[in-house]
Design brief:
With 400 residues, this protein is α/β, with parallel strands linked by helices. The chain is built from 19 helices and 13 strands. It has two domains: 110 residues, Rossmann fold; 265 residues, 3-Layer(aba) Sandwich (Rossmann fold). The C terminus is likely disordered. Bound molecules: adenosine-5'-diphosphate (ADP) and magnesium ion.
C-alpha cells in the first residue's frame, strides 16, 4: 500500500481516487493548486504524489518539497506543453494523463528498485574538471575540446555542465537547454534512482567526427539550488559507472559560502564547483594569457590547490598571443608562471579567433570545424600526452 496525495483536475481526480482505493492505496489528500500541494506534502509526508504536469500543480517548489522528503512524483502529461514543462523541471517520471491505474501502479513501484542502483560498478571512469578564474579564460572551450579529443581516441565520454553562474555548453554546441540534463540527473541522484540507463535518457548526444554525451547545464542561473554539493557529488559518482571519462565545465568562484553565510544549512551556490573539484581525479586549470588574466590566475591558483590538492592540476594558458604580452609570448608566459606561481610546464593554447569563432558559430567542435587549427592541435596534445595516458581507464571490460 502506498499513501498518496493527488494534484489533479477534478475529473481525473475522481477517477484516479477510486482506482487507487480499489488497488489498496490510501489517498491522504487532494489539492487544487501547487501552493496547497506543497503544504500538504510537507504536512502529510505521503509515499508518492500523483500530479498533473501543468504549472498549476507542478512547480519547482512542489518538486523540492517532494525531493526533500523522498516522496516519489508521478506526473500525468496531457499534451506536449505538459511534457515540456515536466522535462524543464528535470522530471522524467511521466505518463499519459489518460493512462489507466495499472500503468501508474508500475510507476509507483517504479524504477526506484534498489537493485538497479546498488549493482556493483564494473568500471570506474575518470573525472576531469576544467576550472579557471573569473573573466572567461576559456573553460567551456577547453572542456568541449577535451571531451571531443578523448572521444576521438575511442573512449566513452560525457561532458557535464556544472556551471551555476553561466552554463554555456548547450548554446556553444547548438543543443537545446530547455530541459537541463544535469539538473535532471541531480534530481534522480537525490532520490537514489540515477542509473547508467537514466543517464542515457536525460543526456544529449553531440554527433560529430567523435561523439560524446552531454549533460546540459541550467540555462536559468536562478535554478542553482538544484545543484547542491551533495547532488553534484552523487551524479559524478554515477557518471564513473556510465562512461570512461567525465569532463566537467564549471563556474570560477571558489569562494567559500560558509564564510559568507552563518546559516550552516543554507544552500551554497559555489558548492557545485567545490564538490566537482573535490570529486575530480584531475583538474585542468585554464588561465587567459594576458597580463590581467595571468594575475587573476596566479591569485586564484593558490585557492584552487587548497580545494583540490596539488599533484592533480594541469595548467593551461589559453589565447596566447603577442599582441597581449609582447614578442615571444610563449616564453613570456612560461617565465611569468614560473617566477610568480612556481608553475613549471604549462600547456599553451594559441589565440585562434577564426577557428574558435567558427566552431561556436556552427555549434560544432574545433575537431569537426578546424581540425588543423593551432588551438585544436594544442588541445589534442594536452589530451593525448597528459590526460589520456595517465588516466587510462580499463577499456573494453564492460559494454552495456
Ligand atoms: N584559444 C582561443 N582563441 C580565441 N578565442 C577563444 C579561445 N578560447 C576561448 N575563446 C573565446 O573566448 C570567449 C570565452 O570563452 P569560454 O570558453 O566561453 O570561457 P569561459 O567558459 O571560461 O567563460 C568565447 O568567446 C570563446 O570563443
Ligand atoms: Mg563557460
Amino acid at each position: 500500500m502506498v499513501s498518496l496525495v493527488l494534484g489533479l483536475p477534478a475529473d481525473h481526480e475522481a477517477r484516479l481516487r477510486s482506482d487507487a482505493n480499489r488497488y489498496g492505496h490510501e489517498v491522504l489528500a487532494s489539492s487544487g493548486s501547487a501552493q496547497e500541494l506543497e503544504v500538504v506534502v510537507r504536512a502529510l509526508r505521503p509515499g508518492a504524489a500523483v500530479v498533473s504536469a501543468s504549472p498549476q500543480y507542478l512547480t519547482p517548489r512542489v518538486l523540492a518539497a517532494c525531493d526533500d522528503l523522498g516522496v516519489r512524483v508521478v506526473a500525468l502529461v496531457a499534451d506536449e506543453m505538459g511534457r515540456r514543462h515536466a522535462a524543464s523541471l528535470g522530471l522524467y517520471e511521466t505518463t499519459d494523463a489518460t493512462a489507466d491505474w495499472p500503468t501508474i501502479e508500475l510507476m509507483l513501484g517504479g524504477s526506484r528498485g534498489p537493485a538497479a542502483v546498488t549493482t556493483p560498478a564494473v568500471t570506474r571512469g575518470q573525472v576531469i574538471a576544467v576550472w579557471g578564474p573569473s573573466g572567461a579564460p576559456g573553460r567551456t572551450t577547453l572542456a568541449i575540446g577535451i571531451a571531443s579529443e578523448l572521444a576521438a581516441l575511442g573512449h566513452r565520454v560525457a561532458l557535464a555542465d556544472v556551471d551555476t553562474h553561466g552554463a554555456s555548453v548547450a548554446p556553444t554546441l547548438g543543443l537545446l537547454d530547455e530541459a537541463p540534463g544535469f539538473a535532471a540527473a541531480c534530481r534522480l541522484a537525490s532520490s537514489d534512482t540515477l542509473t547508467p540507463e537514466e543517464l542515457d535518457r536525460v543526456s544529449d548526444v553531440y554527433q560529430g567526427a567523435s561523439s560524446f554525451r552531454v549533460l546540459t547545464g541550467i540555462g536559468a542561473p536562478r535554478r542553482w539550488p538544484e545543484l547542491s554539493a551533495e547532488r553534484v557529488t552523487g551524479v559524478i559518482q554515477r557518471c564513473r559507472e556510465w562512461v570512461d571519462y567525465t569532463v566537467i565545465d564549471m563556474a570560477s568562484s571558489l569562494e567559500n559560502d560558509e564564510e559568507i553565510s552563518s546559516d550552516l544549512f543554507a544552500p551554497r551556490r559555489n558548492g557545485a564547483t567545490v564538490a566537482a573539484l573535490r570529486e575530480a581525479d584531475r583538474v585542468v586549470a585554464v588561465g587567459s594569457a594576458d597580463p590581467v588574466g595571468m594575475s587573476r590566475f596566479l591569485r586564484a591558483h593558490v585557492e584552487l590547490l587548497e580545494v583540490s590538492g596539488a599533484g592533480r592540476v594541469d595548467v593551461v594558458m589559453n589565447r596566447v598571443r603577442a599582441s597581449a604580452i609582447g614578442l615571444g609570448p610563449a616564453a613570456q608566459v612560461r617565465q611569468t608562471l614560473a617566477r610568480f606561481g612556481g608553475i613549471d610546464d604549462p600547456v599553451l593554447v594559441p589565440h585562434d579567433q577564426n577557428a574558435v569563432d567558427g566552431a561556436v558559430l556552427s555549434g560544432r567542435t574545433l575537431l569537426d570545424v578546424s581540425p588543423r587549427s593551432g588551438a585544436r592541435r594544442a588541445i589534442a596534445d594536452l589530451v593525448a600526452l597528459r590526460l589520456a595516458p595517465v588516466a587510462e581507464p580499463a577499456r573494453g571490460r564492460r559494454r552495456r
